Amino acid sequence: MEKNYLLSVTLDSENCTGCTNCLKRCPTEAIRVRGGKAKIKKMYCIDCGECIRICPHHAKRAAYDSLDTLADFEYKIALPPPSLYAQFNNLDDKSLVLDALIQFGFDEVFEVAAAAEIISAATRQELRREGVRLPLISSACPSTVRLIRVRFPNLIDNISRLAAPIDLAADLAVKAAITKTGLPREKIGVFFITPCPAKVTSVYSPLGIGKSNVDRVIAVSDIYPKLLSAMKKVYEKYDDDDFSHTNTIAGKIGVSWGNRGGEAAGLIIDRYLAADGIENVIRVLNDLEDNKIHNVDFIELNACAGGCVGGVLTVENPFIANVKLNKLRKYLPVSGTHTEDGFPESIRLTKPIEYLPLFEYGGSVAESIAMMQKIDAQFARLPGLDCGCCGAPSCRAHAEDIIKGKTTENECIHLLKKNLQALAGVSTGISGD
Fold first, then answer.
1. Are 253 and 117 in contact (CB under 8 A)?
2. All domains of the chain, ordered by start, with CATH?
3. Under DSSP, is residue 263 helix (H, G, I), strand (E, B) or coil?
4. What is the pLDDT of residues 283-320, one digit of tens each?
5. C-alpha dist (Å) from residue 224 to 91, 292, 295, 314
6. What is the C-alpha separation between 276 and 256, in angstroms, rounded?
7. Which of these, 346, 350, 337, lies nearest to 171 by C-alpha position?
8. Which pLDDT tens digit goes with each residue over 339-370?
9. At what angle are helices 112-127 and 165-181 packed, to 10 degrees?
10. Distance in angstroms (rounded) separating the CA atoms of residues 429 and 433
11. What is residue 1's predicted lDDT score, i.e. its pLDDT?
């Protein structure tokens, strides 16, 4: 198990009613309801945000850094993702958003979309490399990567060894800032503006790299209202000759990463598959593991519906955001970055992504088989309704919890009722009586 593993999805126990909506949606069965309150199994959570999205009582929240942490650094760099641009109405020039970030208090802005274009170019080259395992799965969505390592270990070698845009952008921004300012690294703060909790985890508990160069992660939803007023001030200055717009770099390819299929489309290939929404991601991974997917060289998987614009820390409807981003793309060049001089060293992951055997039942094959037999026997005693009333997402999960000593059979109200009525000589009507 990993030490000091950060969980970005948190629970507000006071708001939780134990309604079981969240545990039925969790893709890794990381949630249980015990004592009338939801509990998150830390190592099982992939921070996809589905429980935040589905909770009617707002009992699930995402942990991220406060805007007040800008005061922690002398020189502050903002890393805006493409999804940020899609939050604003009638935006036909993204430099308005970039300038607003400077107006808000940042000293410099580095577009994550610019780093995405570099990774797109490197991926095109990677797909031509001899020996690469196809189909190549994008490493950009941290929820997808974490899902693969706990549920689909046979697909780990298919994950791209190229860094996510956020990490490459942070590395390039830091190096440029040190050269420009002469300041030591500790006085330079890199702030990523995140659309989802998974990217918070990817910064503080990274996979594939030793340490992220991002220092703080703030939410799109937090900075959005601040940027609206800052953008108004910037707009009023557009006719002022003394006002210099922030340099905008990224073109269509980089900005498209915020939408579903945007990364794959930027590779300029035909043999690709793009899926969004955690249930669709799981379906694709299941089919890939079962060797049902053929003639595909690249797979882009986004845990959020619509892509990153659908993250739970955004403010706009993801489908409307997709329309906004598509409109913005019309005014951009195809690409604003150049890689003729080669790729930066930090474009590649430096550490292996290793299988995390959370769903294994024992330390050996014999132990696993014995445990599975016990679970199968216990499962056969349960009604198979998957109602969630026991506090587990399914009867199978409840059987596992019973065998592992986490709960008791009597938590199943249907089985308890059946047993009580059997004692009284009354039929329950449940199959198996």
1. yes
2. 1-63 (3.30.70.20), 67-347 (no CATH), 363-433 (1.10.15.40)
3. helix
4. 999 999 999 999 999 999 999 999 999 999 999 999 99
5. 14, 42, 42, 9
6. 14
7. 346
8. 777 899 999 999 999 998 877 777 778 888 89
9. 120
10. 7
11. 43
